[in-house]
Amino acid sequence: MLFKRMWLTGLRHTSNGSHMLDLRPAGYVIGLLVFVLGLTMLVPLGLDLYLQNGHWPAFFESAVLTIVPGLLMALSCANGVGQRLTIQQTFLLTTGVWFVLPLFGALPFSFGATDARYVDAFFEAMSGLTTTGSTVFDGLQTLPEGLLLWRGLLQWFGGVGIIVVAMVFLPELRVGGMQIFRSEGFDTFGKILPRAGEIAQQISVVYLALTVVCAVTYSALGMEPFDAIVHSMTTIATGGFANYDSSFGGFPRGVEYAAAGFMLLAALPFVRYVQLLGGSAYPIFKDSQVRAFLATALVVVIVLALWLTYGRGAAFETSFRKALFNTVSIVTGTGYASADYMQWGAIAVVLFFFIGLIGGCAGSTACSIKVFRYQLLMTSISTQLKRLYAPHGVFEPRYEGRKVSEEVLSSVMAFFVMFFVTLAVIAILLGLTGLDFITSVSGAAAALANIGPGLGSEIGPAGNFGGLGDTAKWILSAAMLLGRLELMAVFVLFTAQFWRA
Fold first, then answer.
1. Residue 34: its pLDDT value, please?
2. What is the rounded distance in angstroms from the CA atom of residue 44 to the CA atom of residue 49?
3. Which of 171, 148, 182 has its CA nearest to residue 59?
4. For the segment 106-131, what is each residue's pLDDT rounded down to a tens digit?
5. Cβ atoms within 10 Å of 64's Cβ, excluding its own
6. Phi/psi at 403 (nearest 5 deg)?
7. SS3 sequence of 454-494
8. What local confidence, expressed as pLDDT, does residue 195 receive?
9. 3 state DSSP class of 439
10. Burial grade of 487 (CB within 10 A; 0-12, 13-18, 19 or more)
11. Confidence of residue 197 (pLDDT cuts 50, 70, 90)
12. Which ranges of 221-269 does DSSP label H, i.e. alpha helix?
């Protein structure tokens, strides 16, 4: 509760003095989270001891090397706890958490059964905590259960973490138009939920409840209990880590339908579920994000199902199920696969590439650009067109019936520009490492939009990222971090003005 109050107080306060930026408040929170991450490693350690797989020493060593530095960092920064977080400190905290945690989260992969080199271990940990779902490992089904559980836990914690960041930090920091969700005119927080801290707590309860329901459903439909638990965590996190190289390809058809449903639920704003539990069902049905997101997914599913049925000669039920599961997986950024959709023809490949750049709703575990930004973009374009043919008219951009400020629109436009410029730069850098065009572009998109699989034979749904060079893996790891924190929260750290505290 102590560091939660630190997160939520003083976010609007910034210093115009010339004194040195105090890193202690951010360091204290990061240290505590590293400490908690180390304690979490004891869970797969206990599982490994119970199953007598003999891999528990890897988790013990990793836990010690994580708990001790985390505790020391928190204690050394504890004398800065009483201070309020400035804007600079909040940006540092937001980015620092997602950079530092993978450094330690990688240790079980390096010390464990994979015996991975650190670049691969870091890539896997970053992919897990950012809920990207790209993997460098093959033979997943041969890994010990403790390591598979660790992969699931990384994604599960990353999923709930990004919801809190999206609902508490980014609106306050005015990142990418997210400030629209802190306006009193919008009912994201609303009268039902007056404080952000209260929202974060209740969202965590909803997140846990959805995970439990998902696990029970998977088990009832034929999954083994262990698989049901791990896959429920990576489903609700829209993370995409699976326990098998074939992902969801070997599970019963009922599991595919259930997974599609839970992925959709996880891609909707979690605050709406809290409002629903509070007795207000109207907001979730009124939310234009929800309607636009579901409509987009439905259109793509229908198009692909018809294409697979009449263009590829598959049975309709199979076509619909495969189209539903894989479309939902890509548009939510989960990254599961139940078929190699690279074999479905050009129309499927093109559709999957572009819907991956749409993403889910703000305030969900889903990734990418987000639906609301496209809605605001279209609103801005529509307003400009009206002003062209009626120059004397008064036209104001509106979202859900309410006026949108120029600050919000400028922030959204800047985000779009930065996203696609960053995407191009990452693709070029990947190309310079020797990758072909399709792998470079789709790999950049998969990492920056936190989708998971790319396109092509190497990093597509039937492959993984293990064969890429070390330089490419570091580039993609950085892209995952950028994409998960909405770009601006990271890029601002590289400006001279930021450090003029």
1. 95
2. 9
3. 148
4. 999 999 777 789 999 999 999 999 99
5. 13
6. -65, 140
7. CCHHHHCCCCCCCCCCHHHHHHHHHHHHHHHCCCHHHHHHH
8. 56
9. helix
10. buried
11. low
12. 225-236, 253-266
Is the distance from CB of 236 to CB of 207 less than 8 angstroms? Answer: yes
Q: What is the pTM of this model?
A: 0.90
The Cα–Cα gap between 280 and 188 comes to 12
On the question of pLDDT at 172 being above 80, the answer is no
**How much is the mean pLDDT over the chain?**
88
Strand partners, 385: none
8 Å CB contact between 484 and 446? no
Identify the DSSP state of 21.
P
Sequence length of the chain is 501
Retrieve residue 366's tokens.
């889903």
- DSSP-derived letter for residue 84 is P
**Nearest to 116, CA basis, from 439, 465, 430:** 465
Q: Count CA atoms closer than 13 A to 295's CA, side-chain side.
A: 8
Among 281, 275, 232, 479, residue whose Cα is nearest residue 363: 275
Structural contact between residues 130 and 480, judged by C-beta atoms closer than 8 angstroms: yes
The pair of structure tokens assigned to 79 is: 């004398």
DSSP code, position 112: S
Distance separating alpha carbons of residues 183 and 215, to the nearest angstrom: 36
Q: Are 145 and 168 in contact (CB under 8 A)?
A: no
Q: Is the pLDDT of residue 436 over 80?
A: yes
